[in-house]
């Protein structure tokens, strides 16, 4: 049987060669597509990991506008109850749920508006790009502040300096200065969540909850 098949193949060498070439091309294309798909998935997973978060819970309204405003370091008109955090954290699809409180402090005399962010230690998981120029990566106490690169330059502050916020009447101490990241973090003033809620008279309120999923493929499930 094998000899008969071989004889038939050798009888039409051109057709046999074309058939073999076609099979080789098909195998090569399949191999390339498989490798591309695996590389794309790895790249996407890496990018999502760098982003830190895959979802954001915001108050009622346009979710796209709200999420864009928060990501750009802008405040929202509405807020969430802090009790929403527990409900999000209990979702089996959620790996990390980090509360955020964003508030704007106008400084008309200087022609600028300062943006303050209150957060807790869970936010560190969602900010893998955070690198310190000096100081510590987390707050040393309730009255400490971490400054973005541009915020530190505007305020001309170094680690250990006192920082007085006349708008809130609060005296803070600089715990750390962030390296420039090219993100909105560069211009922000970071304080512990409870400190921000106290400074700006927002007890038990949040602007948003940043969410990291256990598996990005479960995005649709978690959104429901």
Task: Kindly describe this structure.
This protein is α+β, with helices and mostly antiparallel strands and 224 residues long. The protein has helices at 2-11, 13-51, 63-71, 84-89, 123-126, 149-155, 193-199, 219-223; strands at 55-57, 80-81, 94-107, 112-119, 132-135, 144-147, 162-165, 170-178, 188-192, 205-206, 208-213. The protein folds into two domains: 2-49; 54-223, no CATH class. Helix content is 39%, strand content 27%. Strand 3 (94-107) and strand 4 (112-119) form a beta hairpin. The longest helix has 39 residues, at 13-51.
Secondary-structure blueprint of this entry?
Elements: H1 2-11, H2 13-51, E1 55-57, H3 63-71, E2 80-81, H4 84-89, E3 94-107, E4 112-119, H5 123-126, E5 132-135, E6 144-147, H6 149-155, E7 162-165, E8 170-178, E9 188-192, H7 193-199, E10 205-206, E11 208-213, H8 219-223
Parallel strand pairs: 4-9, 6-8
Antiparallel strand pairs: 1-11, 2-10, 3-4, 3-11, 5-8, 6-9, 7-8
- Bin the helical content: 25-40%
Number of domains: 2
Helix and strand element order: HHEHEHEEHEEHEEEHEEH
- Strand tally is 11
- Report the portion of residues in β strands: 25-35%
Outline the biggest β-sheet: 9 strands, mixed
Task: Offer a concise description of the structure.
By secondary structure, the protein is of the alpha+beta class. It has helices at 2-11, 13-51, 63-71, 84-89, 123-126, 149-155, 193-199, 219-223; strands spanning 55-57, 80-81, 94-107, 112-119, 132-135, 144-147, 162-165, 170-178, 188-192, 205-206, 208-213.
């Amino acid at each position: 049987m094998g000899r008969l098949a071989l004889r038939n193949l050798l009888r039409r060498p051109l057709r046999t060669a074309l058939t073999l070439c076609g099979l080789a091309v098909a195998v090569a294309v399949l191999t390339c597509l498989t490798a591309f798909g695996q590389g794309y998935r790895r790249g996407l997973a890496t990018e999502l990991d760098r982003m830190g978060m895959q979802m954001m819970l915001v108050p009622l309204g346009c979710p796209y506008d709200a999420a864009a405003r928060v990501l750009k370091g802008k405040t929202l008109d509405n807020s969430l109850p802090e009790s929403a955090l527990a409900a999000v954290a209990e979702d089996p699809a959620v790996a990390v749920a980090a509360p955020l409180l964003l508030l704007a402090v106008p400084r008309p005399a200087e022609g600028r508006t300062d943006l303050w962010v209150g957060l807790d230690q869970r936010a560190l998981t969602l900010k893998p790009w955070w690198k310190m120029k000096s100081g510590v990566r987390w707050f040393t106490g309730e009255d400490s502040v971490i400054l973005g690169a541009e915020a530190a330059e505007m305020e001309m502050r170094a680690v250990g300096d006192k920082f007085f916020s006349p708008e809130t009447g609060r005296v803070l101490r600089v715990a750390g200065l962030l390296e420039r990241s090219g993100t909105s973090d560069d211009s922000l003033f970071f304080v512990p969540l409870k400190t921000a809620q106290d400074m700006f008279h927002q007890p038990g309120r949040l602007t948003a909850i940043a969410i990291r999923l256990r598996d990005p493929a479960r995005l649709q499930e978690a959104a429901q």
